[in-house]
Amino acid sequence: MRHSIFSRSDILECVERRWTYMSRPIHAMAAMLHPLYRSSELWSDTFLSTKQSEYVGLVFSEDDQLQIDREFTNYMNGIGPSFTRSVALRKEATKFPLTWWHSYGRVGLPNLSRLALRVLSQVRIHYAFHLYIYLISAISYHLIYSMFNCVVA
C-alpha cells in the first residue's frame, strides 16, 4: 500500500473547508448565473435555489427581490429578447459569462444583468463550476468523506 504524507484527518479537513467555502450563497448564485451551465437541472436543484434565494434576500430590498425573481425565472426558462438570437445561445458566446451578460443579458433582463455582472466579477468562475459539478453529479460531502475513509489509511 502506498503511504501518504497526509493523514486522513488532514485530507478530510481540506475537503470540508473547500465544501464549506463553496457552499456560500454567492458561489451558488454565480453557478446559476453562468450562461454555459444554465439548465433545468440547475434550476430545480434545491440546494442552489435555497442559496440563490438567501443571497437575493441578503442583498436586495423586497421590491428589488420581486424584480430579480421575475427576471431570474425568465433567464432560467429562456424567455425574453436575450434568447431570441441564436448566436446568444452558442457555446462560444456562453462560455465567457461576463461578456454574455454584457452583450445579451442587458436586453430584457436589466436588473439581473447588473446583479450577474457584479456577482460574476467577484467570484472566480472555476469555484462556481466546481460547485456545479459537485451538486449535479450528486457527490455529497458524505460521499466524499466515505471515499476518503476507504482510500486513505
What features would you describe in this structure?
With 153 residues, the protein is mainly α. It has one domain (8-151). The protein is built from ten helices and no strands. It has helices spanning 8-22, 25-33, 40-44, 46-59, 62-77, 91-94, 97-105, 110-122, 125-136, 141-151. The longest helix is centred in the middle third of the chain and has 16 residues, at 62-77. The mean pLDDT is 77.
Characteristics:
single chain, 153 residues, mainly alpha, 71% helix, globular
Number of domains: 1
**Share of residues in strands:** under 5%
If you average the pLDDT, what whole number results?
Answer: 77
Annotation field: number of helices: 10
User: Which structural category do the helix and sheet elements fall into?
Assistant: mainly alpha
Give the SSE order as H and E letters: HHHHHHHHHH
Total strands: the figure is: 0
How much helical structure, as a percent, in the residues? over 70%
**Major sheet attributes:** none
Molecular shape: globular
User: Rg from C-alpha positions?
Assistant: 18 Å
State the separation between the terminal residues, measured CA to CA: 9 Å
Q: Low-confidence segments, ≥5 residues, pLDDT <50?
A: none
